[in-house]
Amino acid sequence: MKNLNRIYLDNSATTKLNEEVLEEMLPFFSENYGNPSSLHTIGLVANAAIQKARDQIAGLIGAESDEIIFTSGGTESDNLALYGIAYANKKRGNHIITSSIEHPAIRQMCNFLDENGFEVTYIPVDQDGIINPAHIEEAIKEETILISIMTINNEIGTIQPIKEISHIAKDHNVYFHTDAVGAIGQMPIDVKKLDLDILSMDSHKIHGPKGIGAIYLKKNTRIQPQILGGNQEYNLRAGTENVPGIVGMGKAFEIAARDFDKNKDHMMNLRDRLIDGILKIEDVRLNGHPKLRAPNNVNVSFNFINGKSLVSSLNLAGIEVSTGCACTSKSAEASEVLRACGLSTEEANGAIRLTNSKYNTKEEINYVLEILPSIVNKLRQKSLI
Ligand SMILES: *Cc1c(COP(=O)(O)O)cnc(C)c1O
Questions:
Q1: Backbone region of residue 234 per phi and psi (left: phi > 0; alpha: psi in -120 to 50; beta: other values)
Q2: In the structure, how many helices (H) and strands (E) does the chain have?
Q3: In this predicted structure, what is the pLDDT of residue 385?
Q4: What is the four-CA torsion angle of 318, 319, 320, 322, rounded to 10 degrees?
Q5: In angstroms, how far is CA 55 from the centroid of its own chain?
Q6: Which residues contact 203 (CB under 8 A, 6 or more apart)?
Q7: What count of other Cβ atoms lies within 10 Å of the Cβ of residue 363?
Q8: Helix or strand or coil: residue 192?
Q9: Positive or negative CA dihedral for 153, 158, 159, 164?
Q10: Mean pLDDT, the chain, as a whole number?
Q11: Staple partner for 222: which of 55, 88, 117, 203, CB 3.0–4.6 Å?
Q12: pLDDT digits (tens, 9 = 90+) for 25-80
């Protein structure tokens, strides 16, 4: 395809596939087509590739390789974590604690559980979008079996106090799950140091392929599988493995670990340049926490403007951003995350999210800052009429 020469700043929706990852995947679409469960050579090749990917993923998060279970992506990982822990522990209790700013993959599963005999408590966030661990501790009761809090929010980039929350969970003998989809490659994660029971990951947010993800499941943690069938993935997730996807995810994680420091510094520089420049425009606010935020995340609200109009105008100018969560961007509702931070409907509707990656350049950011003020002015003049 022709290079469209676009400035892509929507890396929390998805990322560009890394060339090295593609190279690694290609043979598994053609000559290495074996079923990893087969006992002949071509099957063993596929199985070995899966084991290698398990090692690569475990390596990035400090897990053992048999604690990695592949799924079809972040959504399935989140669903499996919550459903799996809830149904495996329902004799012990039926209470689950989560936050008011979780991804829909968590929120919708919580709604389902709430309608099916479980009880869910939603912990609010402060105006910067941060959860207070004390509020979680207060919500724990006799029946509590699981706490699920995301590591980094996908809309406003806030980094949650996962370590404190994990310790609270341990003190009360409650399972702790974190949706780390937004955190992989953005901050160091060590499942042992954080003492996590279960963690969700995906691949396409860190330059790997779509349709593949995984959970980390601490050894000896029981979960009820959602997909039943063959005995793949330690009997926890049936179905013939997505071998090219798994191989690509493994490579993406290996690269993320290898280039972590370099990428993080680069993304932070671009982020801060963008924030400093945008805040020079009048009547703008930064959403999320000024310091505790993902290296690649900028989320800002412009007064007197609709975020969707701004996204369209920027798109015409070759700049690709979003209003927030890609999964709900087509709905008319204001962002629930921004509303949870106490923003008015108008403020929430005036928000856009710009998320960079290692592939963005300083020149691209300079160009955005050059043309953004005039685009904002034009839209504001229109909204006055
Ligand atoms: C993208 C995302 C998901 C869903 O992942 P998919 O791979 O798209 O299913 C879940 N949680 C967070 C925080 C995300 O950013």
A1: left
A2: 13, 12
A3: 66
A4: -130
A5: 21
A6: 73, 209, 210, 212, 213, 245, 248, 249, 252, 253
A7: 9
A8: coil
A9: negative
A10: 96
A11: 88
A12: 999 999 999 999 999 999 999 999 999 999 999 999 999 999 999 999 999 999 99
Cβ 151 vs Cβ 200: under 8 Å: no
Q: How far apart are CA 341 and CA 153, in angstroms?
A: 12
User: 178 - beta bridge partners?
Assistant: 199
Which ligand 1 atom sits nearest the alpha carbon of residue 153?
Answer: 13
Tell me if residue 121 falls in helix, strand or coil: strand
Mutate to test the pocket of ligand 1, among 15, 78, 204, 215 (most ligand atoms within 8 A of CB): 78
Tokens standing for residue 234: 């330690």
Whether 112 has a pLDDT exceeding 90, the answer reads yes
Taking the centre of ligand 1 as the mean of its atom positions, its distance from the CA of residue 297, in whole angstroms, is 15
Question: Per-residue pLDDT tens for 73-87?
Answer: 999 999 999 999 999
What is the Å distance from ligand 1's center to 197 Cα? 19
pLDDT tens digits, 190-230: 999 999 999 999 999 999 999 999 999 999 999 999 999 99
Q: Which token pair is 349?
A: 């509707």
